[in-house]
Amino acid sequence: MIDRIGKDFEFYQKALALRQQRQEILASNIANADTPHYKARDIDFNATLREAMGEGGLPRLPDTSLTLTSARHIPAQAHTNGPARELYRVPTQPSLDGNTVEMNTERVQFADNTMRYQADLQVLNGRIKSLLAAIQQ
Fold first, then answer.
1. How far is CA 10 from CA 4, 20, 29, 34, 39, in A?
2. HSE (CB half, 13 Å, CA atoms) of 51?
3. What is the pTM of this model?
4. Taking Cα atoms as reference points, which of 19, 23, 30 lies closest to residue 121?
5. DSSP notation for 41-92
6. To the nearest whole number, what is the mean pLDDT of the chain?
7. Does residue 12 sit in helix, strand or coil?
């Protein structure tokens, strides 16, 4: 029973963390709307959440290591920055300075992600309240 509750909360924890990471990416896009040659980025939330929960989704990068030609070399491995793979957004109307941020798209995505983050928090709050009610009875 406890494992099932932990698995349920693990899902919400990962979903909220990915929503927060996407919010930061979208905010960065908005902040760089006037930066020449800035490329708007986003993540595929559904595929990234499936991957984080271990249900397939985006393919993982293979572990790669550097060839050591001397005993004094430091071994290193390639790794990704966080659980989400950032994708570049294809602009519908390219700008002359090479910037791909479209403010209308970014604002809509930012508002949608904010709404979904709040909804996830409310669902999680409801789950916690129902568990507390069951425990107290």
1. 10, 15, 29, 38, 33
2. 16
3. 0.72
4. 19
5. EEE-HHHHHHHHTTS--SPPPPP-BPPP-STTSPP-B---SSSPPEEEPPPS
6. 84
7. helix
